[in-house]
Design a protein that fits this description.
6-stranded antiparallel beta sheet, alpha+beta, 28% strand, disordered N terminus, 8 strands, 256 residues, two-stranded antiparallel sheet
Length: 256
């Protein structure tokens, strides 16, 4: 999802949930409850709007979000069909990288950089950034069992976070912020909000700088995971996670 919509605060430091998101969640729960079983065709828009007690414009917007997230598919001549493989609920979408790699083992996040920098091509591509200014940048090595298992680079816009998730800004600035990944703190601050993530995975080599940070030769093969975390449709965080050979297995959920 590439939208740039933003929410207004509710006066308590939390963004208000848009009605279309509440409708989206109602429909997902109805699917899970068997009202609209996987593989079935949804009723027509007028009938579905009547069943849910909502307007057709609101329903249409929710249906677009459901299609984008793979909850339903649309085929000409068939209509809207409920997918057989539904996305997991809420925070099952997202877990801190250190939690995914740890799986009961000792995990330590070693901070390499906690700073602000000029926007890069990567952060500009994936985040909503001000025309002028800096972006928050964190770089960390995640050690599992005393060995480097992942090099993590993370970017976030303080301007966007201050508007949508000010608790995250406070966590980043807090005394214990350096001992965690930015993603871990963001998920804690946003618990209960509709945060989602999307990722891509490619095979590559570590390169000289990353190799030095992970204690490996530059030509060592590795797996690079890029990730964008969103609050509804607004990107809050963009990250790169480089995993060298021998890193713990990283569980992957694949969307169609």
């Amino acid at each position: 999802m590439v939208g740039r919509q933003r929410e207004r605060g509710n006066g308590a430091g939390r963004p208000q949930r848009r009605p279309v998101v509440a409708l989206y969640e109602r429909m997902v729960e109805a699917i899970r409850a068997g009202t609209y079983p996987p593989g079935s065709t949804l009723p027509t828009e007028p009938r579905l709007a009547a069943e849910l007690g909502v307007s057709r414009p609101a329903l249409r917007e929710a249906l677009i979000l459901l299609q984008e997230d793979g909850v339903i598919t649309v085929r000409r001549g068939v209509g809207r069909t409920v997918s057989h493989h539904l996305p997991p609920r809420g925070f099952e979408f997202l877990k801190p990288v250190e939690s995914l790699l740890g799986a009961g083992r000792q995990v330590v996040t070693v901070p390499l950089a906690r700073t602000r920098e000029e926007p890069t091509d990567f952060s500009t591509q994936h985040l909503v950034l001000p025309a002028h200014g800096e972006v928050r940048f964190w770089e960390s090595v995640i050690e599992v069992g005393g060995l480097p298992a992942c090099l993590t680079q993370e970017w976030a816009s303080d301007e966007t976070l201050a508007e949508l998730l000010p608790d995250a800004v406070a966590a980043f600035e807090g005394p214990g912020g350096g001992a965690s990944s930015m993603l871990g703190l963001l998920l804690d601050a946003g618990r209960g909000l509709p945060l989602t993530g999307s990722s891509t995975i490619v095979a590559t080599t570590l390169g000289r700088q990353r190799g030095a940070q992970l204690g490996r030769p530059a030509d060592t093969p590795g797996v690079l995971v890029t990730q964008v975390v969103r609050l509804e449709r607004t990107p809050l965080l963009a990250a790169k996670h480089m995993l060298p050979p021998g890193a713990p297995a990283l569980p992957v959920w694949q969307a169609r």
